[in-house]
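Run: sequence + S-adenosylmethionine -> complex structure.
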Amino acid sequence: MMSSTIERNGSIMGFGNCINYRQELGVGLPIDVDKGRPLVIAHPAAGIYYHSSMSLFEDTKHPFLHVMVDYGDYYPNTYPYVVDCANYALYHRLPDSSLGHNVFRKASISTPHWQMHVIGEAYEFLSKAPPLDILYVDWFTWLDEFIVKPETSFCDMMSHYIHKIRDGGLIIIDDKHENIEQWNNYPKERTKITNDSEIEYLCHIEWLGTNWQDEMTTYSAKVLKVHHNLESKLGQKNWFEEIKKWFWTSIPEFALNKSQIEKMIENKQEESIHHLAVTWNDWHDTWRDVYMDLERPVLQPIPPFKAWPRNSYLEYLKWLKEHPKLLFEKLQKRTL
Ligand SMILES: C[S@@+](CC[C@H](N)C(=O)[O-])C[C@H]1O[C@@H](n2cnc3c(N)ncnc32)[C@H](O)[C@@H]1O
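>> structure
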């Protein structure tokens, strides 16, 4: 028997604000979201195209971790910088993950979110990392060595990763390279791709977002749902406990315990940024001391004044306090 995660047939409201084309025109992604934890989305081999997946989640008002894995360091604070038309940087750099990956957030958004950039081979990293809620993919070279036959290429590739997507989770295939047949021949009917798992095509979606030059762009993608056999190991898995493992290593506040979070709230703790992140004051000092005298200065982007909009960091700490299951568990001492 396959899982029966809640179906939204008949309801037009899914998660977020994209347009979905199912039997009728609807709004949102067809996924059930656990309100008690951030959603985890990976967009491997994104290059500088991560704005597509970012824009699908940034206005959902639900916390999320956005994981990039690429050979290149396409950080928003390196060239080509992610800036608006007045050269203001849109992202701020946060403390690194415990494994040293660079982490950023979009400074204008109150919703807690973290964009983590892992430099490395995507399959190598993701196949060893905790599972995901959503795999967003536009470039499949990290999976295409698993293709056995041209007719089954999509299923061949996904059969090597599907155990890392939670039951009821999604595979979102960006339309950017829909002309590449072997990456886009997903089955149109619900199909078993391993002994324990099936994929089901659900719908086509479209949404608006900005691109790497901060221009408004329309994106579109296909959405497939993952089902695991309830009688199998995957069907029995506690996905909450598995997915939670992302947070302790990626986000410093999640590695604290409840009383530490309470103390931070009591102290009205301000957020920290990365110790190498250029602050607004640094930028102005450089402008005053160096650039003012130059005839045609090449200006680095102006960093955001704060990494979080007013009060939103404190709101996030309060949200964490309300979700203690996400926090690091107190170590059981063997002695008193
Ligand atoms: C041609 S660009 C495509 C960028 C973007 N995804 C798109 O479709 O426009 C390919 C990107 O995938 C990355 N890439 C290719 N194979 C990869 C792999 N096995 N692991 C990690 N990154 C990979 C490259 O470094 C590069 O940034």
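>> summary
The CA atoms of residues 140 and 183 lie 7 Å apart. The pocket of S-adenosylmethionine is lined by residues 45-47, 49, 69-72, 121-122, 138-139, 141-142, 176-177 (CB under 6 Å).
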